[in-house]
Amino acid sequence: MAFKPANNIQDLQYFGEFGGVNPSISDSSTYTFLSAKTMFDTFEGNAEGCYLYSRHSSPSNLYLGEALAAMEGTETATVTASGMGAITAVLLQLCSAGEHVVSSRTIYGGTYAFLKNFTPRLGINTTFVDITQLDVVEAAITPKTKVLYCESVSNPLLEVADIKGLTELAKKYDLKLVVDNTFSPLSISPIILGADVVIHSLTKFINGSSDTVGGVVCGTNEFINDLRNVNNGAAMLLGSTMDSLRSASVLKNLRTLHIRMMQHSYNATYLAEKFENDGLKTVYPGLASHPSHELFKSMMNDKYGFGGMLTIDVGSLDKANALMELMQEDNLGYLAVSLGFYKTLFSAPGSSTSSEIPEDEQKSMGLSDGLIRFSIGLDADIERTYMMMKACMKKLNIL
Hints:
The protein is built from 15 helices and twelve strands. By secondary structure, it is an alpha/beta fold. It has two domains: about 5-255, Type I PLP-dependent aspartate aminotransferase-like (Major domain) (Aspartate Aminotransferase, domain 2); about 255-395, Aspartate Aminotransferase, domain 1. The longest helix has 21 residues, at about 255-275. The model has no long low-confidence stretch (mean pLDDT about 95).
């Protein structure tokens, strides 16, 4: 039977403390013990079902982690206070001083800055490559390499990683393949394709309401236990703990993710096809013109579509800014970073979410000044949205 991630979420059954259909929220930072020995055993990790302190774990965080692990098809998961809290903990858990990472060059600016500017202070260096060229990826691997890192669909250029091909390289060289799946929840299941660890920024599509920040690491019981280890676990010792109230909120929103992703994808496909037909330089994995269109199709779970992210290039930063300001004025969305909201969000990544990447490197990877990144919303009348966007473009002589 085909892997159906939304079914896995739906099939989880929780009963609240008093029989509620939502699990009770554990609004406590610390937990009591009936005996001192049980506290000792819990510190040693030998007291199943006992809670010690909410930085270690809490029932609310474990409920959310269980649901996200079910979605991604992993043994378990641990949630964090942000997507970067998940990314940094994973990379520092897997790499020590003197070791090496091979990473996609087109990744979220914060991840790029962490690998480019911060980890070298700890003796961990990174080679950034075109992740779509497997021969280039393999050539960058050294005896010190420990991790291959990529995004399923890259931020902001929407390059698509060949996860099966990267898995083969990871196995050949005994590396861990870590995949950030933030742009394509449900659509792509990296673990099923062979990845070792999957990361999400829960802030984006999974939560979907732009009211909280969070992250998750999905993986094996062994790896997640390592992250939580009180003596040397990066997630534990760096302290990026998600609040229980936020965990409960994200869990509720997660249950509608499949419906939202289908609408995000439907709307993005409609706009991308229209924009391309209008002669705009449009990038969207659902377009036959996308260089990895067939690759995405070969990896995707049916019906969730190609995601809600697309880009257009209007030629210059001035034009991009003018268009975004006009679209916001006409109530077509918000000039804002992030993604996955019910309203469309748009930004010029070269001067926002990818600003950590030096200008010369932006140019080499094809990130132009006129690029606008769209997170397409849940508009009920996407034809009307298109007509209004087109009017804005005509007003500015973009079309």
